[in-house]
Design brief:
The complex is a heterodimer of chains A (about 325) and B (about 325). Chain A contains 10 helices and 16 strands. Chain A has about 325 residues and is of the alpha/beta class. Chain A has 2 domains: about 150 residues, Translation factors (Elongation Factor Tu (Ef-tu), domain 3, Beta Barrel), CATH 2.40.30; about 150 residues, Rossmann fold. In chain A, the strands form 3 sheets. In chain A, strands 4-3-7-1-2-6-5 form a 7-stranded antiparallel sheet. In chain A, strands 11-10-9-8-12-13-16 form a 7-stranded mixed sheet, with helices on both faces. Chain A has a two-stranded antiparallel sheet with strand order 14-15. In chain A, strand 12, helix 8 and strand 13 form a beta-alpha-beta unit. Chain A is globular. Chain B has a single domain, classed as Alpha-Beta Barrel (TIM Barrel), CATH 3.20.20.70. Classes of the chains: A alpha/beta (about 325), B alpha/beta (about 325).
């Protein structure tokens, strides 16, 4: 079944920019009136870019207020009201899932540079959600096209703390956990400039899986890549290079952030605790509702959707259901 | 200090503030979390014969101020897993166990399992479709003869008190309350969510994965209050048997609780408020209720129960 409002039915002369502007204005009005987006607001995809094998970034245009209020680690519930083929069969999978923002772009291409300097963020604000094809919903999202609907509500949840001036930040990601680590690095650099030292370790399955490395390289003082099979960087898991990074840090003045599979995050957090480094993890759990209603995303006595996704490492390590296989 | 305790069939509550079914109460961790608050009692998620997955999302959204729309699809771990969990856990608060099934036989077998596992009272979620051909378009709770059949079947098979949870989506809720009470229900819970539908004009389709949904939140509180009053008045007039009423729908403050009590409710259930805030809201609501009762000089819940019905008594 292809429905009339489905983007697939639009002709080539369709004015995507005008629609993106209109939807962004609508979002801004909702934010003004309610202070949050409680209900999914569809936005047309203005671009979809391949990052690596099975990993794509979906770009949508949003009001700049959404970006200035967003804090790294927080997530949006993301939903495709129509499938990539334009149909709206009621799917047999959960078609709304949490994703944290991967990147933000202020497009000043249509603004005179001299004037732009005076008006700060003026220009189209784009938010990128980087999604890896890991299942039915994420797979469907990676097959979306420019002009298709992508609905968001949020932002929800807790965020990573901002590091102090003069401190060191260690960022350890596994796979698609790269995206909140990138936003954390971006925020720290924007707020503290060269008054923060950022070391990143990004773990991937193999060379073809590597994404966001160029982005991180620009922001970090050092970037170490590990792959499970050794096809790029150091062979093995991110924990191996972390030993050396930690040994060179002043524990009292260092924070460690991590995001990735729990089986990776657990030893990473243990290493931080053993070295008395303050640590935080962005948790990913099966999270259908985001508002504390369904109760299906619990870790210990906390709801990942509201008390997380960012939680303290020392607390997580005390939970029996953290870092065990199939804990999702 | 105002006395808030209330004793109901199968439930001895330290205050009248219970969790509402469908919010968080499907697992031991979630129930312990709520029990650690100042709620007076728990209500489990509705438990069915076998594990059920949640519906495709979006499953629950804040559609506008005071309006929450949801279609979860009764996700639950199933009776076997839930009774195992009940036996392994001791919750700090009394729990009303909510159950549902596709037919009365299933209701009976789940009810018996729950009683064996130590449940002290059951809430029958009658807002589910019936498996009988021709009955699927309507939920059980919209068909008084089915309510009668289900309640009687469960009452005949267990010794613990049985509460019937009714839908507001009928012409006159006292008809359904009458059916439940005459079949032996020990209490009435109302209301379940109000039938709803929301469409996004840009996407041109409903915003809930299941398409159709139920509405809750503060916006439905006046609807719930009217339904509670209708049943309470029918009891007062002797038109239907008298039994305790658990009122629910959009309660977020202590004053809201007072409103329901004044319309005849014995206790209340709170759900959507946990979406707006955390489980601490039970403590906040309790404090507000105590403060209100003290300043108005109500020594206990009985002293204000039903007083707002007096002004409605002459209505036909």
């Amino acid at each position: 079944m292809t429905l009339r409002a489905s983007p697939i039915n639009r002709d080539d002369s369709f004015d995507l920019e005008a629609l993106a502007d209109s939807c962004s204005n609508r979002l801004e009005k909702e934010l003004d009136e309610k202070g949050k987006i409680g209900s999914p607001i569809p936005l047309p995809i203005v671009d979809i870019v391949s990052e690596s094998e099975g990993v794509k970034t979906i770009w949508i245009q949003v009001p700049s207020i959404l970006v200035s209020n967003y804090k790294p680690g927080q997530y949006f519930m993301c939903w495709n009201p129509y499938d990539a083929d334009g149909g709206m069969s009621r799917p047999n999978y959960n078609s709304e899932k949490p994703y944290s923002v991967g990147d933000i772009l202020i497009d000043r291409s249509e603004i005179d540079e001299v004037i732009a300097a005076d008006i700060g963020n003026k220009g189209r604000t784009l938010v990128g959600f980087t999604i890896k094809d890991l299942g039915k919903q994420s797979g469907e999202l990676t097959r979306m096209k420019k002009g298709d609907w992508f609905a968001i509500r949020g932002p929800f949840g807790t965020n990573f703390p901002t590091p102090n001036a003069g401190s060191t930040l260690l960022l350890v990601s596994g796979g698609i956990g790269s995206t909140p680590m990138h936003m954390a690095a971006r925020e720290a650099r924007q707020k503290l400039g060269d008054k923060v030292i950022i070391h990143a370790i990004m773990g991937f399955q193999n060379e073809n899986d590597v994404h966001y490395a160029a982005r991180m390289e620009k922001l970090c003082d050092s970037l170490t890549i590990t792959t499970d099979d050794g096809s790029l960087g150091i062979k093995g898991y991110p924990t191996a290079p972390l030993v050396e990074l930690i040994s060179n840090c002043d524990a009292n003045n260092t924070k460690l952030f991590t995001c990735g599979p729990e089986l990776m995050m657990k030893p990473v957090l243990e290493m931080a605790i053993n070295s008395k480094i303050e640590s935080y993890a962005a948790m990913e759990r099966y999270l259908p509702c985001s508002v504390g209603a369904c109760g299906l995303c619990m870790v210990g006595d906390r709801l990942t959707c509201k008390d997380g996704p960012v939680m303290e490492g020392d607390w997580l390590l005390q939970q029996d259901d953290f870092g065990i296989p199939n804990s999702h | 200090m105002a006395e808030l305790s209330v004793v109901l069939p199968g439930l001895s509550l330290s205050n009248p503030l219970m969790l509402a079914s469908g919010i968080q109460g499907g697992s031991a961790a979630a129930l312990h979390r709520v029990a650690s608050s100042r709620c007076g009692g728990l209500v489990s998620k509705s438990i069915g014969p076998s594990p059920r997955e949640i519906y495709p999302g979006p499953v629950c959204v804040e559609a506008m101020d005071s309006v929450i729309l949801n279609a979860m699809g009764l996700p639950n771990p199933g009776v076997d897993a839930f009774t195992t969990m009940m036996k392994e856990n001791n919750f700090a608060k009394p729990m009303l166990v909510s159950i549902f099934g596709p037919d009365s036989d299933t209701f009976v077998s789940i009810a018996q399992e729950m009683e064996k596992a130590g449940a002290t009272a059951l809430e029958l979620n009658l807002s589910c479709p019936h498996s009988k051909p021709g009955s699927r378009a309507l939920i059980v709770g919209q068909q008084p003869e089915l309510i009668r059949e289900y309640v009687r079947a469960v009452k005949d098979s267990v010794n613990i008190p049985v509460y019937a949870k009714l839908t507001p989506n009928t012409a006159s809720v006292s008809i359904e309350a009458k059916a439940a009470l005459e079949a032996g229900a020990d209490g009435i819970c109302l209301i379940n969510t109000v039938s709803a539908l929301e469409v996004d004009p840009f996407a041109g389709r409903p915003i809930i994965g299941n398409l159709l949904c139920g509405m809750s939140g503060p916006a439905i509180r006046p609807i719930a209050q009217r339904k509670v009053a209708e049943v309470a008045l029918a009891m007062r007039r002797g038109e239907i048997p008298t039994a305790p009423i658990l009122g629910m729908g959009g309660i977020t403050t202590g004053l809201d609780v007072a409103r329901f009590i004044m319309l005849g409710a014995d206790a209340v259930q709170i759900g959507s408020a946990l979406i707006y805030e955390d489980v601490d809201i039970f403590g906040k609501i309790e404090n507000e209720l105590i403060e209100f009762m003290e300043v108005q000089d109500y020594p206990d819940l009985n002293s204000m129960r039903g007083i707002a019905l007096d002004s409605l008594e002459e209505l036909n």
